[in-house]
Design a protein that fits this description.
The chain is mostly helical. 51% of the residues lie in helices and 11% in strands. A three-stranded antiparallel β-sheet has the order 2-3-4. The relative contact order is 0.10. The model is unreliable at 1-9 (pLDDT under 50).
Length: 271
């Protein structure tokens, strides 16, 4: 380029203009002229288009890979329009394509507010949990026998450590059913979106992502346990009906140990 690069500030200005031009859906004449300097702005604009189109394709591919069920539910054309708007309104601050979809669920919640499609944002939250669970560390699980040597009177004071990839997602909509119905290439089975709330747990073990549907009481109890509360304190906080407390705790622990979600039993003395 004919334009001299005679200062760090000038270079930063040019880099910012180039970044805006590559990310933008439309050509900014001022930025193009700044970048072209005394050169041919029209020719330079054509060159920018090549970079911009490539950047858009990388962006779109990454978003489609992260949110395949969301895309399938709204259709390819509408998803691509959402992707274009998201890219303009929430430009990613990450250099890693893996993270460009991080703000998509929150952005989608604002975009879909009042449209009757509010459930899409929660579906996207579930898919983002699946995406990020893969990157989390995976530890060897412990079994229920790890509780065997503990004095029964001390069990309420025991806390559990969980797989780092474990994430909980709750929604007033049946998002697990929507997600599950779209896991095959065949036409997705219809889902009654008025069916009510569903609660999910997402975890990655042995490089396999699993999405579980939980009962509301189990989900609430698991939230407290994942926050570090002891078995007794979590059960007291989560289960309103004392008559069902033991059954809910037993059911959740049997599932958690069976699926390899627990990685450590932390013994504590009563206060």
């Amino acid at each position: 380029m004919p334009r001299p690069r005679d200062s760090a500030t000038d270079l930063q200005t040019l880099q910012a203009a180039f970044g805006r031009s590559v990310r933008s859906a439309t050509v900014n004449g001022t930025d193009v002229q700044l970048l072209a300097g005394s050169g041919d702005a029209t020719l330079f604009s054509a060159g920018i288009d090549v970079y911009s189109n490539n950047a858009w394709q990388f962006f779109l591919t990454a978003l489609e890979r992260t949110y395949p069920v969301t895309q399938r539910r709204v259709g390819t054309d509408f998803f691509r329009q959402l992707a274009r708007d998201y890219r303009v309104q929430r430009p990613s601050q990450h250099g890693d394509l893996h993270w460009i979809g991080e703000a998509f669920p929150a952005w989608l919640a604002a975009r879909m507010a009042g449209t009757g499609y509010e459930w899409l944002a929660d579906l996207a939250r579930l898919e983002w949990a699946c995406e990020t669970s893969v990157a989390a560390a995976q530890h060897d699980p412990v079994g229920p026998e790890s509780l065997a040597g503990i004095d029964p009177h001390l069990l309420p004071h025991v806390a559990l450590a969980w797989q780092p990839s474990l994430q909980l997602v709750a929604s007033p909509f049946p998002i697990w059913s929507v997600w599950q119905a779209n896991q095959h290439e065949d036409a997705a089975a219809p889902v009654d979106l008025a069916a009510g709330a569903e609660h999910c747990a997402v975890v990655c073990i042995a490089d396999r992502v699993a999405v579980y549907r939980l009962e509301a009481a189990d989900h609430r109890l698991l939230q407290y346990l994942c926050a570090g509360m002891s078995l007794g304190a979590a059960a007291d906080a989560a289960v309103a009906n004392a008559g069902t407390l033991g059954r809910v705790l037993e059911r959740l622990l049997a599932w958690a140990f069976g699926e390899g979600l627990v990685v450590q039993v932390v013994k504590a003395s009563p206060a």
